[in-house]
Specification:
elongated; 61% helix; mainly alpha
C-alpha cells in the first residue's frame, strides 16, 4: 500500500514539473473571479477589461524563468560531473636506455650485402 502511494506521488510530481504551465492555466480558470477582484494589478482601471489576465501573464513569466533557471542549473551540474573533481597530475618518467654496439664489423656480412643489394641502373 505504501509503495503504491509513493509511486502515485512520484508520478504526479513528474507530471507536475512537465505540465506546470497547464496547472497555472487551470488554477487561473478555477479562481478567475477571485483573482480579478483581489489580485489583479489593473483593478483600478476597469476599462481595460483585464479580468486578472495580467496576474496570469505574470505567473506564466515567473514559471518560464524558473524553468530556464532550472535548465541552466542542470546543464551546469552535468558539466561539473563531466570534469574530474580531484585535479590529477600527469607524471612522465623517462628512462635512459644505453645501447651498446659491437666495436668492430664482421667483414663477411658486409661483403655479402654488396653482392646482393645493388643500386638500380639508369638506361640511356
Amino acid at each position: 500500500m505504501l509503495n503504491r502511494i509513493l509511486v502515485i506521488w512520484l508520478l504526479v510530481a513528474l507530471v507536475g514539473s512537465n505540465f506546470s504551465r497547464y496547472f497555472i492555466y487551470a488554477g487561473f480558470e478555477a479562481n478567475q473571479s477571485y483573482i480579478a477582484k483581489m489580485l489583479c494589478e489593473n483593478k483600478s482601471r476597469p476599462w481595460l477589461h483585464c479580468n486578472g489576465h495580467c496576474f496570469l501573464m505574470k505567473k506564466l513569466k515567473e514559471a518560464s524563468e524558473k524553468e530556464k533557471k532550472q535548465e541552466r542549473e542542470d546543464q551546469k551540474n552535468h558539466y561539473q560531473e563531466a570534469l574530474p573533481h580531484v585535479p590529477f597530475q600527469l607524471a612522465l618518467y623517462i628512462q635512459h636506455i644505453q645501447l651498446s654496439y659491437a666495436q668492430h664489423r664482421i667483414p663477411s656480412v658486409v661483403q655479402h650485402s654488396f653482392s646482393v643489394f645493388q643500386p638500380p641502373r639508369v638506361r640511356a
